[in-house]
Specification:
421 residues, oxidoreductase activity, 2 domains, zinc, alpha/beta, metal-binding
């Protein structure tokens, strides 16, 4: 398996290529003063550490520099980085894509942001000017990520994402004392004075992405919604479904601490995998026609069958289709399935026949956070959404490597952390 990953990484390095666009937008340039800063960096499979790295500087007239005031760890994408299962992450790369802070420098062409303003940073990096951005399809931005291998693999390329791999722009992440934000006017959202960091921080990903899951699933008033995975995204997808008028939210989870949070804090019905082996059968007992909407918030690493475990272990596939099968098997005819969890490669036994025979609508993709900021602020202000429901641990910056391990191995009740700088 390691040989396969190393081969993929070497192939990526050979095929990537760089042009002035990515050199300007993606690659770090040190502050002229030579100043350094603390950051969380990748140090090999299942290892991260705090290190001194160059402090960023303005390299494009639309850049802003943000001094971080709070950050967190994504229990999904950052765990994928931590695991080392996604190739293209170099040792020393700065991790993270969920942060908020204060603008301390601005480029000459920045129009709407000023030094001293508090902002939350979208995890997806968009230019605001290409044909995709003009349609508000920000995660399809054609400017910020020119990785050639992505075009070879997928036929097109995704926008850049903070703190991810070469495949997604190789942009330094947000778990650092300072962050260079390309196209600051597009990718920063001004935090109102009545939204403190402990709430505004989570607009960078979780609160927007979970709402996007419901949009992908076309959740309507009166729907029944089943959600696989009661991590932060799954929990708040269920909460948004309630706000949108769903009459019933059913979660599927295996971790006892998360089951308790889903039941006690969010009021969901929860199917415990420790007690129920055949999830589709149980769902169809509860809802004979099947739920209207199925949301997969688990991702490519979660396997339930021995076949998928073996195929992933020996490199015959990268992504497990087990949860996707359960979603397709359970959802009603003419139902909607939203794949909001990360899938990055290929999967065997993908149940394509279900889509045709059950007339399913299946939608997926990373969240264009910029489309949801205003709605999320409104919901936070009204009290309908409270990010503090999911925070299990408040940590110091130097404790983030330990928090990575706790989240990855699902230890000590860790679900979501809040790190105030």
């Amino acid at each position: 398996m390691n040989e396969i990953r190393n081969t993929a990484t070497n192939l990526m390095d050979k095929q990537l290529g760089r042009n002035p666009v990515s050199e300007t937008y993606g690659q770090p340039v040190q502050d002229p003063s030579g100043a350094t800063m603390k950051a969380v960096v990748f140090d090999g499979s299942r290892n991260v550490k705090i290190d001194e790295v160059p402090k960023p500087t303005i390299t494009h007239p639309k850049d802003v520099i943000v001094k971080t005031t709070a950050c967190t760890i994504c229990s999904g994408s950052d765990s994928h980085m931590f695991s080392g299962e996604i190739p293209g992450r170099n040792k020393g790369s700065v991790l993270g894509h969920e942060s908020c802070g204060i603008v301390v420098e601005r480029g000459s062409e920045v129009k709407d942001l000023f030094v001293g303003e508090r902002v939350v940073i979208a995890f997806d990096i968009a230019c605001g000017s290409c044909s995709f951005c003009k349609r508000r399809e920000f995660t399809g931005c054609d400017t910020t990520n020119d990785t050639k291998l992505m075009d070879v693999n997928y036929g097109a390329h995704h926008s850049a994402i903070f703190g991810y791999t070469k495949m997604l722009g190789d942009v330094p992440g947000c778990q650092a004392e300072y962050i260079r934000v390309p196209f600051g006017d597009v990718n920063c959202y001004k935090l109102p004075e009545d939204i403190p960091d402990i709430k505004g921080l989570y607009m960078s990903d979780v609160l927007c992405t979970s709402l996007h899951a419901c949009e992908l699933g076309s959740v309507q008033k009166g729907n029944t919604v089943a959600i696989w995975g009661m991590g932060p995204i799954g929990l708040f997808a269920g909460r948004w479904a309630q706000i949108l008028g769903a009459k019933r939210v059913i979660g599927i989870e295996v971790i006892p601490d998360r089951i308790k949070i889903a039941r006690n804090r969010f009021g969901f019905e929860v199917i415990d995998r420790n007690e129920v082996k055949d999830i589709p059968k149980k769902i169809l007992e509860l809802i004979p026609d099947g739920p209207d909407v199925a949301i997969d918030a688990t991702g490519f690493r979660f396997t339930t069958t021995m076949l998928q475990k073996i195929e992933r272990a020996v490199g015959l596939e990268t992504d497990s289709a087990d949860v996707i099968f359960e979603c397709f098997q359970s959802v009603r005819k003419y139902g909607h399935v939203a794949l909001i969890a990360d899938y990055v490669g290929t999967s065997n036994q993908f149940p394509v026949g279900h889509i045709m025979m059950k007339h399913l609508t299946v939608r997926s993709g990373q969240c264009p956070c910029q489309n949801y900021f205003d709605r999320v602020v409104k919901a936070i202000r009204s009290g309908e959404i409270d990010p503090e429901w999911m925070i299990t641990n408040k940590v110091k910056f130097d404790d983030l490597p330990d928090a990575y391990e706790k989240l990855f191995y699902k230890q000590d009740g860790y679900l979501k952390v809040f790190c105030q700088m």
